[in-house]
Design a protein that fits this description.
mainly alpha; Four Helix Bundle (Hemerythrin (Met), subunit A); 3 domains; two-stranded antiparallel sheet; 11 helices; 1% strand; flat
Length: 337
């Protein structure tokens, strides 16, 4: 069978499978009493993942280079990454809402690549000289995987906001919840927990006293909205899995940026040129660094970090696609310009 015809068939099959999978996940959310819908949705994501992997493999064989040189290839690689991270996150959370959030995005990306892009942008072409490097696989693939993980984590954070209706709620998951604080020993403490031993130890070890810290320790828990046990459990799951997935994507983004800097020095003679893509990659890194910093050192949990992650979802799309549409730079070749 001709490889081009195989690719055309696989991209359409991937779109059809993801569309059906999206409907299955939405049906499972609307009718939770039907148990097999969740398993059917997971199977659909796995089938789409394999179809896209086969498409990229056929593309690799046909073109003779790793398929990440143009928009069509990168969109399908992004979708493959999203479906892969989805399967990991769903296995961790056992929640149907993971697919409710991720399946529409994966389907939309596939539809754009397979049905919207003109045929001349879908075809493979010889690499431009700047892309003829082993760094193409190292840098671009890691960046795309980081985008996939950060997008899935951000989507789960947005799902958290939908489940909680944007309310300020008290969580009791793996991180410190609303109203949390740190003791003088720099230990994370949840709002409402007994802090008398910490206060006594602090007073015994600090004769001069520290009024500001003592006042912080004795503060009352923040007013929080009350959710049903089922909704609260779902919210805690989404918050926790979102945190873990973003924690996976952030080091990948860091490695990708470092690899890109090394490649830039090799290709252009400079590690950093403040190209639009480089600038927005740095902005993306700073947004998610702030998210992780707030969660790890400040004990943020719930609404505030979810809002920050939701903003990060927009920033990732600007970094990935927006700068290629709105501004021309060193990274423009092989995409829109």
């Amino acid at each position: 069978m001709d490889l081009v015809a195989l690719q055309n068939g696989l991209d359409n099959i991937s779109f059809a499978v993801l569309f059906i999978t999206m409907l299955v996940y939405w049906g499972g959310a609307a009718f939770p009493q039907i148990p097999y819908l969740n398993a059917l949705g997971t199977a659909g994501m796995a089938v789409a993942n394999l179809c896209i992997a086969a498409l990229l493999g056929a593309r690799w064989i046909e073109a003779g280079y790793f398929p990440l040189s143009n928009l069509y290839e990168s969109l399908f690689f992004l979708t493959w990454g999203i479906t892969t991270v989805h399967l990991i996150a769903e296995n961790m959370s056992r929640s149907r809402l993971v697919g409710v959030a991720t399946a529409p995005v994966a389907m939309a990306i596939t539809a754009f690549a397979a049905l919207t892009l003109p045929s001349e942008m879908q075809g493979s072409a010889p690499l431009v000289p700047a892309l003829k490097s082993n760094w193409l696989m190292m840098h671009v693939s890691v960046m795309m995987l980081s985008y996939s993980a950060l997008m899935v984590g951000s989507l789960l954070a947005i799902a958290f906001l939908v489940v909680t209706r944007g309310q300020n709620i008290e969580l009791h998951g793996s991180s410190v919840g609303t109203g949390g604080f740190r003791t003088p020993a720099y230990k994370l403490q949840k709002a409402g927990e007994d802090i008398a031993p910490q206060v006594a130890a602090f007073e015994g070890n600090n004769n001069t006293g520290n009024t500001a810290v003592l006042e912080r320790l004795t503060v009352e828990p923040a007013t929080a909205a009350v959710l049903s046990p089922q909704r609260l459990n779902l919210a805690e799951t989404l918050d926790n899995i979102s945190y873990r997935v973003i924690g996976l994507g952030f080091p990948l983004l860091t490695i990708g940026i470092i690899a890109g800097a090394v490649w830039a020095n090799e290709a252009w003679g400079s590690y950093w040129s403040w190209d639009p893509k480089e600038t927005w990659a740095l902005i993306t890194w700073l947004v998610f660094a702030a998210y992780l910093h707030a969660r790890i050192t400040k004990g943020w949990q719930g609404r505030k970090p979810a809002l920050l992650a939701g903003a990060g979802f927009v920033v990732v799309w600007i970094c990935y696609l927006g700068v290629n549409i709105l501004g021309k730079g060193l990274h423009s070749y092989g995409w829109f310009f």
